[in-house]
Design goal:
By secondary structure, this protein is of the alpha/beta class. It has one domain: Spore Coat Polysaccharide Biosynthesis Protein SpsA, Chain A, CATH 3.90.550.10. Helices cover 33% and strands 24% of the residues. The strands form four sheets. It has a seven-stranded mixed sheet with strand order 5-4-1-6-11-8-12. A two-stranded antiparallel ribbon has the order 2-3. Strand 9 and strand 10 form a beta hairpin. Helix 10 packs antiparallel against helix 11. The relative contact order is 0.17.
Length: 291
Amino acid sequence: MSSKRKGIILAGGKGTRLNPITNGISKQLIPLYDKPIIYYPITTLMLAEIRDILIITSKEDLQSFKRLLGNGNDWGLNLEYKIQPKPNGIAEALLIAEDYLQGSPTCLILGDNFFHGQDLVKKIEFANKQKNGATIFTYQVNNPSSYGVVEFNKKFKVINIIEKPSDHKSNFAITGLYFYDSNAVEYAKEIIPSKRGELEITELNRIYLEKDDLHVQNFGRGMAWLDTGTFDGIHEASSYIRTMQHRQGLKIGCPEEVAWRKGWINNEQLKEFARKSFKSGYGEYLLKLAD
């Protein structure tokens, strides 16, 4: 058993909300402005100092992910892969990852969730340092009935977690980023499939809540959280990324840059990446960093 946290990216599913595109390609391989969607959750884990990452995907898409990402060594990462035969719920990712985790704490992130903002690094680094319990993140939304939500009392203490509520008891949606201690796999084994036949991540979070071991951090103003599993979501996130990158001259979700800034790769390795993708403008950006 290791105290070092490992990452899990759930990049399976059929992507039915993006048909017909996803009839031929995994949604996490679709471009989000100038990078594949999968780059963004990878860099989120990297920013939290997580370098051992398991990518869970379908059998049909496995080779495409391996061709794109390899073993992660070029970015100072250790990437491994497992197959989810059917999309049986988010919590199933922990059961699939049991042998990989070997009792380690984990951070589970959905492969189509995009996070960006000034407080992101501070919040996820803090969550990564927590030894016990679970840490989830909320974001205030106008349409809570589309999400699992957290209900608070007047002292802002969590009193309930509700899956897609029909009434507006709370506007604080739970995002697709979850930090769990080493108990998560055993707790996930206790979950009974829901009416739609899935192992709901809400039920796992409820177990932590019942044990008074659930910590909630809120992403406030100045933070962006977008679900890129829909056409509108992809358009909104792409427009956001394009605007921010053009305005600041800094890329969002660039694993080469994160690895370089953290000292996981050196200048020469960064220049090698730049040479491979210079014509797209992506390499030109990396070369400017190296110089």
